[in-house]
Q: What sequence folds into this?
């Protein structure tokens, strides 16, 4: 398998866009027909409904975008049955040609972090054999515990050419409470960005980007530019586009001159681009995906992407 | 159900100690006989072995200590089968009279945080009904995303009288990279401690402690005293005792005059207090638990606990 960033760059070029579709299934927002069909089974029924719903979204978006990002929390909310479904959906997305980012924001001290990391990437080792668990292309990771607690994630990812996205500046309105605190004259999120820079430079792909990316909210255009300035070689994952208020023009500073370097993630605005009673909800999901692709092409460097792939 | 801190204080008084036994099952460290019995089943076999191993630890320690803390990562490492086992073990511990802290270090933006929180505490809501998922007494939470992202955890916990332990100063050697950064003249971890103080004061129990605690490594005695000074009403959860190098005397600053206010967590030193070929491993786990209780009684304010419960 090729370097994670090279696979990501190739997928973005092949689709001609850098849209990542989040999978954030919520029972109360599912199409009514689907809810009715699975209403008897409690958590297990909800998990089956999530499988059908997200599976159809994967089928709809796989020809259009390079990446999907399932949000672990919504599958965990259905208990073990939800995690069976998460595992199946990750496999289905891979088979449909999508790259997968598992959004788990995992973090722990070194030896425990390794257990999370192997579950995401290299597989859990039992008597010298490795067994894949989530088998994702990338995982989101929270940096609060420091470099030493992030490194087991890099180590496992690098065994099998996967990637890690470290939270730098998140998209929620209250993100700044700690992330913006001034640490010796510069905000905490820039300290984290500096750590990401040194990690990603350890393992650059042929495309010039490393295997450690940064999560930076699409809701903070000014910070995006600052972070890009100090973190040249990292892919940025920008959540918060669409429903959380991020706009296309705001994402521009995240992209580099080659049109690469960023993934713009939209979850709710695509997942729930319909009313529950709509019978043609898949067409609306497709239309919302195409609309997101067009908005971003107009506002960012997607024309550079076309040039750079020629 | 009573306030979380009151239940915790009562459990500590009833057992006469503040030891929390971590459940950190690792395949390669399990008793050999148990591994042999489950060696055919890959991840599913490992999950079954974890259930048997941790179940027997629960039976051994339930009469001795007030709290157990399963580490989510090791169960996730076995995939969905591991999470079935995690769910069963949490139930078994509760039925054995133990309080349960799920160590997941979860974190996300508000609406997604609510999904994690409901899975841990109030149950996932489907068509107006709540279905319990992990049903833990408390969950560890990472604060990097700020107050607004922690509040959904408090909200769900308070619906059902549960507790939240927020990472303040972790026990890993590299924890200081970000946590010790000086933010306007004081370390980041004290900024987080100040946030914990305001959360926990929102909902104090009759015992005088709130339902939001702080994770503070037992490996940092000097910081413990500083954090206790600015965070009077919070329970401290001290991981890193034993295998990670924390010593009994180092935990003293975490306890208040009433002998309450802290839980000392030991995982590996108790879970793996035997050699894999030992047939009497349960007796060794019991002896290690009793030894931990004695060490802490000698070095901390356990005599105050005895007085305060009279």
A:
């Amino acid at each position: 398998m090729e370097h994670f960033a090279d696979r990501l760059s190739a997928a973005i070029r092949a689709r001609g866009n850098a849209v990542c579709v989040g999978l954030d299934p919520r029972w109360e927002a599912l199409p009514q027909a689907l809810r009715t069909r699975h209403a008897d089974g409690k958590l297990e029924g909800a998990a089956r409904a999530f499988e059908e719903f997200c599976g159809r979204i994967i089928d709809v978006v796989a020809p259009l975008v390079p990446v999907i990002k399932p949000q672990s929390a919504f599958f965990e909310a259905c208990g073990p049955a939800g995690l069976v479904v998460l595992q199946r959906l990750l496999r289905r997305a891979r088979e449909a040609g999508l790259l997968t980012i598992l959004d788990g924001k995992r973090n722990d001290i070194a030896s425990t972090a390794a257990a999370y990391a192997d579950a995401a990437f290299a597989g859990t080792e039992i008597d010298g054999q490795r067994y894949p668990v989530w088998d994702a292309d990338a995982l989101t990771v929270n940096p609060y515990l420091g470099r030493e607690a992030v490194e087991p994630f890099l180590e496992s990812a690098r065994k099998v050419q996967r990637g890690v996205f470290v939270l730098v500046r998140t998209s929620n309105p209250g993100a700044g409470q700690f992330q913006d605190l001034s640490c010796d004259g510069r905000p905490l999120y820039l300290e984290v960005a500096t750590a990401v820079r040194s990690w990603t430079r350890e393992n650059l792909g042929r495309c010039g980007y490393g295997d450690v990316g940064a999560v930076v909210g699409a809701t903070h255009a000014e910070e995006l530019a600052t972070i890009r300035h100090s973190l040249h070689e990292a892919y940025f994952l920008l959540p918060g586009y669409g429903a959380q208020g991020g706009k296309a023009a705001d994402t521009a500073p995240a992209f580099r001159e080659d049109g690469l370097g960023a993934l713009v993630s939209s979850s709710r605005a695509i997942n729930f681009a319909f009313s529950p009673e709509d019978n043609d909800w898949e067409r609306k999901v497709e239309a919302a995906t195409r609309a997101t692709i067009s908005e971003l092409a107009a506002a960012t460097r997607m024309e550079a992407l076309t040039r750079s792939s020629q």
Notes: The first strand of chain B starts at residue 19 and ends at 23. Residues 4-308 of chain B form a domain with the TIM Barrel fold (CATH 3.20.20.70). The first helix of chain B runs from residue 4 to 15.
